[in-house]
Amino acid sequence: MIILVIGVSGSGKTTVGELLAQSLGWEFRDADEFHPKANIEKMSHGIPLNDADRMPWLQAMQSAIDRCLQEEQNMVLTCSALKEAYRQMLLRDKERVRLVYLKGSFELIKQRLEHRPHHYMKVDMLQSQFDTLEEPQEALTVDITQPPEAIVQQIRASLGI
Questions:
Q1: Could you give the CA distance from residue 2 to residue 95 in angstroms, rounded to a whole number?
Q2: Domain, as residue range, for 143
Q3: What is the pLDDT of residues 59-107, one digit of tens each?
Q4: The three-state (H, E, C) secondary structure of 42-100, written as one string
Q5: Burial level of 100, CB count in 10 A (0-12/13-18/19+)?
Q6: Residue 155 and residue 141: Cα distance in Å, rounded?
Q7: Helix 51-70 crosses helix 37-44 at what angle (to 10 degrees)?
Q8: Confidence band, pLDDT 50/70/90 cuts, at residue 43
Q9: What is the DSSP track for 96-131?
Q10: What residues does 124 pair with on adjacent strands?
Q11: Which is more confident, 116 or 155?
């Protein structure tokens, strides 16, 4: 099984994803490691990515998902996956790839980003993430006001793992 933990930057994807993978003994991957250098450079200068920028990133994640599915390996992958079209590219097998959406208010996530040092995602880009976000209809939606450990327990209970 692959659990795709999605949400805007600052929603807690990496924290929750790492804890979830650790609790399950699964591989953990963060979507940031799949970005080409040019994308990271753009974002570090406060320039939002467009669909063309995201395509190589999405294709690299597709390859990682395909590898795990083919080798029957379990993985937790964190990714913003803001648009339905992006999620459809990553849902390579709807039986074995599950979506978990970390949902929170703009204000809460803005506060988190303001206190996150040394990250290329700048606070002033948060609005563009919310503007782009198409909330998933077919995902386990989790309220991020809970502590990360409680979120992990909710995910595990809801997915029966």
A1: 10
A2: 2-159
A3: 999 999 999 999 999 999 999 999 999 999 999 898 999 999 999 999 9
A4: HHHCCCCCCHHHHHHHHHHHHHHHHHHHHCCCCEEEEECCCCHHHHHHHCCCCCCEEEE
A5: buried
A6: 9
A7: 130
A8: confident
A9: TEEEEEEE--HHHHHHHHHT--S-SS-GGGHHHHHH
A10: none
A11: 155
HSE, side-chain direction, 13 A CA sphere, residue 34: 22
Which residues fall within 8 angstroms of residue 86, CB to CB, at 6 or more apart? 54, 58, 79
Note the pLDDT tens digit of each residue in 107-143. 999 888 887 665 555 566 788 889 889 999 989 999 9
Using alpha carbons only, give the angle 40, 42, 47 rounded to the nearest 5 degrees: 130
Q: Per the structure, how many domains does the chain have?
A: 1
Work out the number of other CB atoms within 10 angstroms of the CB of residue 16: 25
What is the domain-level CATH number for residue 18? 3.40.50.300
Task: Assess contact for 65 and 92: CB atoms under 8 A.
Answer: yes
pTM: 0.89
